[in-house]
Automatic annotation (TrEMBL):
<feature type="domain" description="NAD-dependent epimerase/dehydratase">
    <location>
        <begin position="56"/>
        <end position="273"/>
    </location>
</feature>
<dbReference type="InterPro" id="IPR001509">
    <property type="entry name" value="Epimerase_deHydtase"/>
</dbReference>
<dbReference type="Pfam" id="PF01370">
    <property type="entry name" value="Epimerase"/>
</dbReference>
<protein>
    <submittedName>
        <fullName>Chloroplast stem-loop binding protein of 41 kDa b, chloroplastic</fullName>
    </submittedName>
</protein>
<dbReference type="GO" id="GO:0003978">
    <property type="term" value="F:UDP-glucose 4-epimerase activity"/>
</dbReference>
<dbReference type="GO" id="GO:0005996">
    <property type="term" value="P:monosaccharide metabolic process"/>
</dbReference>
<dbReference type="InterPro" id="IPR036291">
    <property type="entry name" value="NAD(P)-bd_dom_sf"/>
</dbReference>
<dbReference type="GO" id="GO:0005829">
    <property type="term" value="C:cytosol"/>
</dbReference>
Amino acid sequence: MARMVALQQNQLSFSPLASSLSDFSGTRLHSQIQLKRKAWQPKAGFYVSASSTKKILIMGGTRFIGVFMSRLLVKEGHQVTLFTRGKAPIAQQLPGESDSDFADFSSKILHLKGDRQDFEFVKSSLAAERFDVVYDINGREAVEVEPIITALPNLEQYIYCSSAGVYLKSDLLPHSEEDAVDPKSRHKGKLETESLLEAKGVNWTSIRPVYIYGPLNYNPVEEWFFHRLKAGRPIPIPNSGMQITQLGHVKDLAKAFITVLGNDKASREVFNISGSKYVTFDGLARACAKAGGFPAPEIIHYNPKEFDFGKKKAFPFRDQHFFASVDKAKHVLGLEPEFGLVEGLADSYNLDFGRGTYRKEADFTTDDIILGKSLVTA
């Protein structure tokens, strides 16, 4: 049974947890399980060397990006604390992770329990701890960030997870870091946060991912396709299917977050992070099939204007070209994505969906509307 140590002081709770998580190398996992279908072999695990040891706070960290990033930081010897509301376990064993690796990680990770909307608690608790670096991977509004900056006047670096969704829609692609941004986008809070960090004179770095995929993804990106492929259903794709988009693997994103730590070249800079290749919607459907060892899918194109889906979303991507240049990250930071698209999708499938550990059950309601079929109720 995992060892748990907890220290509670007022609302503050620190706990080096022990459960069971470990190496999330796709290669190791593939050797441990037998898949019914032939799937592409994922690449080996990744490892990045960061700078000197830091006392690091991660805002969030128990779901997707933070799970992989925190393991790299702990492996590098940093003292890592997750700030969460405590609704999810601070550590849980990943597929393919050995018991010993997980026990090592969970014995070192710390927990600061609280609600980041409770600004007074944030200020008092963080001021008492004096963190060197903050990784903010769940901040959405500038008002959530100001108390953190106030509490940590000697902060060395604030590393922020923004979004490529901040760019103004344009006919000229790919988006680059110098492109115009959209102050009315649904990600405007992230833009305002970047502006706040600059205005406060903080040593900040902002990462702007495009679409993120990989094991533990809670957004219906690759899972949306895998559900349909597993069920042997056609894949409905809006309009021509030639819309171009871009996906970046979560492990490559975690690597980018580690690379900017203590990196002078990343000071007060914005970086797009994603895969090197762009892909059409139809191409993504075929890539998912190849990654999971499924037959080539039947693809159905439809005009979304001809349907009323109510509040349901019929397709997980925005119906437009949407991709960004990662040249700056390559040239300035020396970053090169490890995962090609099919290899990355295979890593996700083998470590997650292929094991039956997807986030949501399949819902083909909108598919049936598109295909002109009646729903079959049990």
